[in-house]
Structure formats: structure tokens, C-alpha cells
Amino acid sequence: MLGKRGYSQFIRPFLYLVDLIILAFTIFYLLTDRQLYLTVFITFWIILSIIFSFYEVYRYTKIVRIISLLARQIFVFTLLIFSFLYITYSEIEFLKVVKFSIFLFILFSIWRISLHIFLKKYRVVTGRNYKEVVIIGSNKTTRRLIQFFKNEPGYGYNYLGFFTIKNEANRLGTFEDFFRYIKSTRVDEVYCSIKELSNEQMNKLVLFADNNLLTLKFIPDNKYIFSKKLEFENYNIMPILSLSDIPLKTDLNKFGKRAFDIIFSLLVIILILSWFTPLLALIIRIESKGSIFFKQLRYGADFNLFACYKFRSMMANKESDSIQAAKNDMRVTKVGKFIRRTSIDELPQFFNVLFGSMSVVGPRPLLLSHTNDYKDKINKFMIRHMVKPGITGLAQVSGYRGNIETDQDMQNRIKYDIFYVENWSLFLDLKIITKTVINVIKGEEKAY
């Protein structure tokens, strides 16, 4: 009898099957009908889906997360296809693969988002595919969770009540009553407030859950520690809970980001800089004497110094390394005002990206003077140097670009930089690039 759980046990296998059917038909009609290629590409997809946990999507997963997983899966999948075609000397054209990848991303996005929305509506309308849940503990955190269960029926949680040692009118019972309740009522998941349980009670609860096939989840009470991403590791047979490393410290993520940087920077260099640089060089030299390019030392990843390149936008001066350009700065040339406002002066940094000292997206490298002034002033400042600096960044597209006038300006910028470092994803990079292009077209007040 299916009951309120509905057909949930069949959803994930159904999802696998439909995905593979969509993939096979798309490869067959848009890429190649060769049986060997079809088999190899589907194998690539299956292997990547395991590596990237592509199908680790749950009822509480947000649509942004689904798109992020999909973007990463298809991006690396496309790189593998290119590699395979290069190794096998295939005659399949580059543009054909690009069109295939774009169509596949659009098709999968529509399919996966539609399914996600449909299942939410299905639960609300039919009352099926629900998980029965109870809570152990009564405090602000558990009350917020209760409100979530009640206000978001689309996620598919049916809240039954809570247990606590406190003498509260609405409780289902005490901690000891919980065990009797479970034996007489179907419960799928139990949420426990850690601070309301002793070690002995915790051990008893875990043992009971294991013996009764209950899913046990703990509600953290230390907001700072548990707002961080945690990893569960085993040292021999000893379980260890640790703060997880930043995403770009893993080899796979570093490889994906570096591959994207190389491809993106090569496209910009070949399609734009190859013809635009001589033209702009002529204009710069006509207006003022000096080098076409401006080189400035900045701190990069692991706090190593590197030479950051720009098109020169100022008259030659001795203060360029220590004082940022301000509004109506007399040092900025006429052509310099234009290329700074449109961010054209940053284009040579794509050579920095190609050679590995920068990334397309990352925390913007600061003046050495600013870094030395603020690295001991602002908490967690140095986290921004755990990854490569970027041509554009989350802080810049969030309104924190240009001159740093107050300590608060720098604090706001660092806040966004830290969020980026700790929450990096390929989807976030693509989002920042898109916003950057829009801002360049619109123009920015602080670009001077």
C-alpha cells in the first residue's frame, strides 16, 4: 500500500531513465549516430553524474542548486567530448558540439525544473509523497523549523508535533514518551535539538533510530560553527566532523575552473584583443606619451605577488601604485576616462588569466597599500587570497566597485569576496560574468 508516500521510491530511478533517454536522443539527432560514440558519451555522463553527485537532488533542494549542478555537469561533459574527438581525430565540427551542449543545457533545465515544480504542486494537491516528521526540543530554532514545515507544504513534510522535557501544553510528550509514540505511529524523520539532549539521551536516540529504520537529523545550536559547511570523515574507525575546505581547493573544481579560464581567455584574446589592441594602442599614444600597457604589482593567490596588466589610462605619475583614481582625477586621460568607464582597460588581464596568475572571476586584486592597511584590520581578510584574483568579482557586480573611501567600503567588499570563496560554483561564475557584461553596457557610476 503506497499511502501518503505515493510513488517516491520510483522517482529517482525514473529520473535516471528519462535523463539517459533525453541524452541518447539528443546525441543521436544533434551530434552523431555512431554507436561507439553514443556509448562512450553516455558512459562519460554516468561517470560525471557520480563524481559531481548530479542526482543528489532532494525535495528541499533549490532550483538555483539544480541549475548549478546541471551547468557543471554539462560543462565538463562538453570538455570530455572535445577531448575524445581530438584524440580520435573525429570530423565532428567544433560548432556542432557547442550547439549540442547549449541545446542539452536548455532541454535539461526545462525538464528538471518542470519536474521539481510539478512534484511540489503534486504534494500540495494530492497529499501524497509526504514524509511524516516529529521534533525533539522546544526553542527558537525548532519553532522556525515548525513554521517552515507548516508554511511550505510543497516540500512534502507533514509535521506531527514535538517532544520536550519542558511542561508545554502543545507537546506530544516527554523524551521518554517519544519512544512509545514511534512504535504506534509511522514517522519517517526525527529532528533533534542538540542542546536539549544529554550524551546518554543522544546515544539512546541514535541506537533506537538504527533499530527502527528512522532517519535522524540534528538541529545545530551554534550558529557560527554550523553555518559553515561540514564534512564527516573517518580516521580509521573514529568519526570526525570538520569544517569543509573551500570548493576551489579540490582538484576537480580547480581543473574545471582552470579549463574554463583558458577557453574563455583564449576566445577574448583571439576574437577581441588580436585586432583591438593595435587600434587602442594608436589612440593612447596619440594623446599621451608612454607605454601602451600599465603594469602594477598586486597580491594574488597564496599571497604571492604578480604583475597585473591594464591598458594605460593615466598620464605617467609616481602615485599610481599607492593612490586609486578618484572622480575627476586629473591624472586620467580623455581616452582613459572612456576605457575605465567601459572596463576596456582591464582587457589585458585576460593574458594574466591565460598564464595562470588570475582567473576570469574572483576577488579583485587590491592595491598593495590597501592590502597592507586592511589585512590586519578586517577579520577573515586573508580568505580572499585562498583563490586566484579575478578580472571581475561578486563584490564588483554587487555595487562595490571603484574607489575605497571608507573602512566600511572595504568591509562590504571583503564580505562579498569571502562569500564567493566559500560558496564558489561554476554557475555563480557564469552569473557574475553575465552581470558584468550588463553593467559594462549600462555603464557604472563608480567606474572612474
TrEMBL record:
Question: Which PANTHER family does this entry report, sorted A to Z?
Answer: COLANIC BIOSYNTHESIS UDP-GLUCOSE LIPID CARRIER TRANSFERASE, UNDECAPRENYL-PHOSPHATE N-ACETYLGALACTOSAMINYL 1-PHOSPHATE TRANSFERASE-RELATED
One function term, GO molecular function aspect: undecaprenyl-phosphate glucose phosphotransferase activity
Q: Does the keyword Transmembrane helix apply?
A: yes
Q: Which Pfam families match?
A: Bac_transf, CoA_binding_3
Q: EC number(s) in its UniProt entry?
A: 2.7.8.31
Could you identify this protein by its name? Undecaprenyl-phosphate glucose phosphotransferase
Its taxonomic path starts at: Bacteria, Pseudomonadati, Bacteroidota, Flavobacteriia, Flavobacteriales
Enumerate the UniProt keywords alphabetically: Membrane, Transferase, Transmembrane, Transmembrane helix
Stretches that traverse the bilayer: 14-31, 37-57, 69-88, 100-119, 262-284
